[in-house]
Amino acid sequence: MNLIDLIIQTPWRAISELKMLILKPFVIFFLKLFGISIKDGSKFYGFPVFQRWQSSQIKIGRNFTNRNDFDSNPLGINHPTIISTRSKEAKIIIGDNVGISGGSICAENSIIIGSNTLIGSNCDIIDTDFHPIKYQRRLSNPNSGASKPIRIGKNVFIGTRSIILKGVSIGDNSVIAAGSVVSKNVPSNSIYIAGRIKKNEK
Q: Which CATH superfamily is domain 3-199 in?
């Protein structure tokens, strides 16, 4: 589709692209100001929220696409993307050609996302429980929940409104069905749906 056809057939997309071009320099300036590493080719549709604990790492690869405006994704965005480190040792590493629409990525330990991974609208990737399971510990130390690293491989597709919990590893080329809560490892070349894992043969 050429530029004229884009404007005529999908004017909302043309407006969104124009807004992205205007906003991008301000987002990049903000990220670099707060010590967040990002490579070339990024696109930001609306302003994300970055919360970086001092001395922690947030690194983003090339051609990152991030949708934050509520109408920048046909499924809707509940809130702008929140990317947050919760300790000085935490790290969030995002590979090349990754797309994220809204949702949250929150690391107290480590979250690594491989290249060419697509994360659907309003997904949460969280490597911590935040709060302890036992009520006695919540009363004495409410923010001492367990935390384990998350690793997501290359070429993964995570469907809309999915939640990836602490300690999970998702192998390369796998698909997470929309609305999933993933609390166990998913092998490479698999489909995770309704808590079950089957081979992705397509």
A: Hexapeptide repeat proteins (2.160.10.10)
